[in-house]
Predict the structure.
Amino acid sequence: MTPDTIHSIFNLFEKHNPTPETELVYEDPYTLLIAVMLSAQTTDMNVNKATEKLFKRAKTPEKMLQLSLEEIEEAIKTLNFFKTKAKNILGISHALVENCHGSVPKDRASLESLPGVGRKTANVVLNVAFHEPTLAVDTHIHRVSNRLGLCATKTPLDTEQALLKVIPKEALYHAHHWLILHGRYICKARKPLCQKCFLEKLCEYKDKEL
Ligand code: SF4
């Protein structure tokens, strides 16, 4: 795919959604970090239902540490792997209070040292909370980017590295949400809605649903 086509793709993303945002409900970097960690293997909508209950009881690391593991499990029990995630909530809160004065760190290494926080979660927090031009590649972004022809990669990490090289600098900050929302609502895994897709003319996918 030529750089001009890539520019056109991101111009169209901007035209259709100038300020894309996460669908996770959060108030600050801490509640965002917890919501993103909880979103592994589940939908944002499910996470929002669980965090509505959880954040009513505690929305700072200090307050969270006043809850028992069982109380946190009860609040998030509708989520996959809720027992592990509840332990991670306590582990994250403990580490933030002990090592970061209760604040969420702004650097990748510190974020990734927190329990249950991997590269993807760190990238989302850096992007959404701290406005860094990072790309958290999930299954949607991996699929959409390969279908469009932005990259030809086998793993999310390869996709992240390939996209960082080709996406125009000025588009990088919003690229994460543009690609993720496109994958969620238009370029769906089983049946992409190519007829409704504003990128159809530029997309290189061979099996478009037209
Ligand atoms: S044209 Fe189809 S395959 Fe290509 S990005 Fe749009 S929905 Fe996805």
